[in-house]
């Protein structure tokens, strides 16, 4: 991740799907620690609470919300996001 160090005027806003656990959760935390503004989407409301505890304790710039990538309304909601990088990590079950 050393090559992703945030520099002024570089990519700064990252949307990560599947951020409630595993790789998505770790990537959200690591990228926020590097100074990126992270939008972290999770599948279940309880995952928001878990991630929120980490965000508060580490004072990270992460916005967490529920998102079902298979739902058209959810996809419309995120289409208005101003993001520079999309990390599609959500599993489809």
Helix content: 25-40%
Mind summarizing the main beta sheet?
Answer: 4 strands, parallel
| Helix-strand makeup class | alpha/beta
SSE pattern, N- to C-terminal: EHEHEHE
Gyration radius over CA: 13 Å
What would the average pLDDT be, to the nearest integer? 88
Net shape: globular
Strand tally: 4
The CA-CA distance between the termini, in Å, is 29 Å
Strand content bin: 15-25%
Largest sheet, order of strands side by side?
3-2-1-4
Low-confidence stretches: none
Count of separate DSSP helical elements: 3
Main traits of this protein?
93 residues, alpha/beta, four-stranded parallel beta sheet
Question: What order do the helices and strands come in, and which of them pair?
Answer:
Elements: E1 13-16, H1 22-33, E2 37-42, H2 45-58, E3 62-66, H3 72-79, E4 85-87
Parallel strand pairs: 1-2, 1-4, 2-3
Give structural notes.
This protein has 93 residues and is of the alpha/beta class. The chain has 3 helices and 4 strands. Strands 3-2-1-4 form a 4-stranded parallel sheet, with helices on one face. The N and C termini lie far apart (29 Å). The relative contact order is 0.25.
